[in-house]
Each structure stands twice: as C-alpha cells, then as structure tokens.
Amino acid sequence: MGKSSTRMLITSLLGDYNILENRGNNNVRAAIYNNMLKLIKNPDFAVIKTSMNAINYLENTSTFLKSDIAIITGIGEAHFSTFKSVKDIAKIKTMIFDGLSSTTGVAIINKDTLYADYLIDKAHENASNVLTYSINKDAKADLTVDNIKYNKGSIELSITNQDNKSEIYRLNTISEGMVSNTLASILTLKSLNLPIKQDLLNDFKPFSKILALKEIHAKTHKLTLLDDTHNASLPAMINAIRAFNSQTKFYSGHKIIAIGKISDLGRKSNETHLKLVEELENSNADYILCKDNELRQVVNKVRNKNITWYPNKELLINDLKYLCNEDSVKSRLLCKMLYNVFTISTYQN
Questions:
Q1: Is 340 exposed, middle or buried (0-12, 13-18, 19+ CB in 10 A)?
Q2: Are 215 and 330 in contact (CB under 8 A)?
C-alpha cells in the first residue's frame, strides 16, 4: 500500500537533516518501541513506518509515539487471515490518528483509496489539520497532479503550486502508485514548511524488489526484469501490472507477466484473486504465466490472452526461459520464496 516507499521518499526529501527511521522494513511493535528509545539521540526528524502489528485492537503504539504528522497511504484487500473485512482494516488503520495532538496534529490521507471519506471523518476527531492528496487533477484534494508522463524507467509529474505555477518533478520509478506516494511526501514537507528539492528526489531509490527495473544479460540476449516480489496486497499487485503496461512500449521483445498468489488473504483468497481477471485481460502482456491454486481459476476466466497455469515452479521457469528473448520485458509478481530460484535458474545457466 505504499508505506515503505512513502517513508523512504520523505527521508530522501529530508536529506539535508539528521533522520531517525525504520531499519529496512522492520515495522512491527517491538521495532516501533525500539525507535522511540532512539529518539534520545535527538534527531531533526523521525520518519517511522508502522504496521498493523503495531496498531490494532490489542495495542496501539501511536498513543505512545505521539506523531506530529500521521499518514494513511491506502486501504485495500490484505491480511484477511487476521481481519474480517476491508472496512475492518480501515477502522484499525484510523487508530494511527489517536496519537496526534488535537491542536497541532496533521493527518494526511490518500483521497483515491477505499473508505477515504471515512478516514477523513475519523482524522477530524483527532487532528486539527486534515490534508488530502489525489492523482486525479479534478479531485477536491489539497494536492493533485496535473499530468503524469511515463518515460522508460522514470516518471515526470507536474503540479501547480500556490503561485499558480507548474512545478515538474522527476521520479526514478515507474508506477502510478509511486506518484501517489510522492504526493503524500510533498504534502508532508509542505506541512513542515520545507522546500521540495528536486535533487533530493532524484536520489530516491525504493527497495530492490519494489518495481525495480533490472537489466539481465543472458548468453545470447539482453532482457529487462521488472521485480515486484515485495508486494503483498491486491492494490499493490494491480499497481505493478499497470506499471508493467506503462513500460511495454519501450521494448521490442516479448512482454511477459509471471505471477503468483497474494499471501495472507485467508478465506477471501479465491474471491480476491478473481479481481485480477480484468487487469490481466487489459494488460499489454504477450504471455502470462501463473502459479498457485488461487491463480488457476483466474486462468480459466481470462479471455484473449496467452495465459498458462503451472502446477509447480520448475515448469513455469522452463517456459519462462524459452519465452524471454532479445529486448523482452518481464514482470515478476511471484511470491518472495521464488526469488532465489528465478535468479539462479533463469539467468545464470
């Protein structure tokens, strides 16, 4: 849902300061308390990503963290093995606002997400200032984007500032979701009355498995891998497929999606995966390779695509090696456990 990327974007934009932040992707309850203890070092800013392990009905670390700014980047289908519904997830996530000061606290909310109006109403119960952002320029939000231009391996977005002048920002990433995360980060710096420095934004790099474009040199040809094995929710998976679509026009070879199941969806796993059918049908993929039982039903419903389901990863890998040709682009959306297998078997034979 963009939490890690937004945290890292904010840290990049605050590059001129001494920052305390999460170590890697460690965002569980113990890590949050550990970062609170590190505040004794008196950093200029602390940028802390929290998970639903740290904010829930059993314990709400936000009441101890007492942040000045709290951000909700999105609500979506995830963690159904633990939570009952998307609405239940939204209710729990609003607990992040409980630690805000009623007089000085700032809540920042993605207006494009599910239950956005509910999030805004709950934020007003705790925060004196509630700000919203949207990638839809016609949305009634505090910060919107006028135009998004997709380049090979990067994005340019234009935003109208308070002086009614257009500002252009370049991102070394390729997804609509990252544009949304950038808006959240820009709103954060505006709330702190700090300038947005383009050179600091240029230095931003997401985790290596968040929509990372990697050039692979095989013995006979070169191809590009779009690695998004970090994602763990339906919105993240859809965002990755759309990011793949934005890049396919820059490659002349085969366009391939290799996809596995979204974990931790519990009893709603089958119905959630069916929401991928339309996205895959509308994708620019020449070939779609699927693994895991949840994707078998998806394969049966996708029309007018070269789509195949595989009972095991070895068969999928064999076909993948055959299909990857010169200047092809492959989006890997498989579960994280396949990462080492793909790196060794596909590209280093």
A1: exposed
A2: no
* Strand arrangement of the beta sheet that strand 147-151 belongs to: 147-151, 154-160, 166-171
Among the listed residues 149, 151, 170, 167, the one whose alpha carbon sits nearest the alpha carbon of residue 159: 167
Q: Contact 341/317 with Cβ under 8 angstroms?
A: yes
CA dihedral 316→77→305→220, nearest 10 degrees, is: -40
Element (H, E) at 166: strand 166-171
Count other Cβ atoms within 10 Å, centred on residue 297. Answer: 14
Beta strands in 253-313 (DSSP E): 255-259, 287-291, 306-310
Give the rounded distance of the alpha carbon of 73 from its chain centre.
Answer: 9
pTM of structure: 0.84
The closest alpha carbon to 95, from 67, 76, 132, 117, belongs to 67
pLDDT one digit per residue (tens) for the chain, 349 residues? 778 889 999 999 999 999 999 887 788 889 999 999 999 999 999 999 998 888 888 889 999 989 999 999 998 777 666 777 888 889 999 999 999 988 899 999 999 999 999 999 999 999 989 999 999 999 999 999 999 999 999 999 999 887 788 899 998 888 888 999 999 999 999 999 999 998 888 878 776 667 778 888 888 889 998 888 776 788 888 988 999 999 999 999 999 999 999 887 888 889 999 999 999 999 999 999 999 999 999 999 999 999 999 999 999 999 998 999 999 987 876 543 333 333 322 332 2
Amino acid in position 28: V
Tokens 């389901």 -> residue = 309
Contacts of 210 (CB under 8 A, 6+ apart): 4, 5, 228, 230, 231
Q: Is 68 exposed, middle or buried (0-12, 13-18, 19+ CB in 10 A)?
A: middle
Residue keyed to tokens 């890590």: 31
Beta strand residue intervals within 260-327, DSSP E: 287-291, 306-310
Close Cβ partners of 123 (under 8 Å, ≥ 6 residues apart)? 70, 94, 97, 107, 109, 130
Distances (CA, A) of 64 to 55, 103, 147, 204: 11, 17, 40, 30
